[in-house]
Amino acid sequence: MSGSISAASVEETLKDFWATRPRRPHDGRKIAGVAAGIARRYQIDPVIVRVAFVAMALCNGAGVLIYLLGWLLLAQADDEVSAAESLIGRGHSSTPTALTVLLGLAVIPATGFFVDGGFTMVGGVLLSVGAIYLLHRGRGQLNRPEPAVAFGGGGSGEGEVGLGGTGGKVSATDEQTTTGGVTPPAWDPLGAAPFAWDLPEPGGAPEPVAASTPVVARRPRSRVGVATFGVALVALAGSLVTSSYSDWFHAQHVIGLLVAVLGGGMVLGALRGGGGRGLIWLVVPLSVVGVLLTTVDFDVDGKQMGSTKASPTTVAEVLDRYTASVGEVELDLTGLPNTGTVTTGVEVGLGSAKVRVPADADVTVDCRADLGSVRCLDRESDGEGRHESVTDYGDDGPGGLKIVLDVRSDLGEVEVRRG
Question: ∠ CA(376), CA(298), CA(346), 5° rounding?
């Protein structure tokens, strides 16, 4: 599996991969066992494979497409063929036919999205295929499935060792030199003293002395993790600098770039003997944040970060909108006079949006949180897609200061209270 890369070697590697492709185990799986099967076939940490799938999923869903194809094309540990091959009648698979059809249907929109997913999707798929190719080229000789040894003369069990060409039968010569199915020792070739056959051979070798436990040399620490962390810091610094000149470097893309760098370092460390496993504590939280950022739609200005506090005392001081990309906005309207009309909004990408209104003001408020909690005067809710609309005239009834609010947070907390 080594040497220069040529068209012939690529074809040979791909054929060998297909012939010895991983099998999905029943134990250690999280969903369908695709990641566990790849890790077991090439003897690497399954966490690394799962992180790689998560990282590729951030590439416009490339990891999802690869996982679905693995579910269809990799057989389970005790099946004859994969689910897709079973569907066309090439053997038996324990995957239900209905599930196989559903998986095939799920691949169709994923493949269509591959065509329209742009460079990120296409690049993610190509990167996944390239990683699998390099993995098999470098570690394909490990844990290869052993071919079954046929029982000699048409024996009945797969994997049994045959007895030459006798078909499992004992020859006449063997019958003459055995008694009760036991071969006599060398000192009694005629079998005259079977009662003494259990005695040790004359002049036999002494019993072997148990060897002491060998001292295993400590494996030197791998530098892959440190080097990868350094490359990730350089990538982060470069992204922050480049973000002033390019709109591509949003938080989602920067996190995806960092996950790709760290994940690549973990894969390289695994190929070089297990280094870089500590990077998992960075990859997992970054992947979770990346998934949340790609799930929730952020429309606020990416340059507005931190805490914003405002306490206007006149209607003219109230801004049309208070925004923050990451952080919190606290707007205190309790110092306004008891007359006039105020219309404003508070919008936060990641964080909290809090507004205090006078106790006697007539308030019409619309509270939204794509993912988080909403405390909108006397209404409360938590979860995804929270939306509360409230009109409240206060303890003194209609009249006085009128306030119209639009308060929202993409991911975080929304709170409007009297006070």
Answer: 35
Amino acid at 313: T
CA–CA dist 92, 83 (Å, integer): 8
Residue 322, Cβ neighbours under 10 Å: how many? Answer: 21
- Phi, psi values for residue 19, rounded to 5°: -70, -30
Q: What angle do CA 368, 370, 374 make, to 5 degrees?
A: 45
Model confidence pLDDT, tens digit, residues 268-327: 777 666 666 677 777 777 777 776 666 555 444 444 566 789 999 999 999 999 988 878
DSSP 5-65: --HHHHHHHHHHHHHT---B-SSS-SSSSHHHHHHHHHT--HHHHHHHHHHHHTTTTHHHH
Among 298, 288, 229, which Cα is nearest to 255's? 288
What b-and-e string marks burial along 152-189, b requiring 16 or more CB atoms within 10 Å of the CB? Answer: beeeeeeeeeeeeeeeeeeeeeeeeeeeeeeebbeeee
Residue 282 DSSP SS3: helix
**Global pTM exceeds 0.90:** no
Which amino acid is located at 260 in the chain? A
Strands in 183-338 per DSSP E: 305-310, 321-332
**Inter-residue contact 180 to 40 (CB < 8 Å):** no
Nearest-angstrom CA–CA distance, 23 and 75: 5
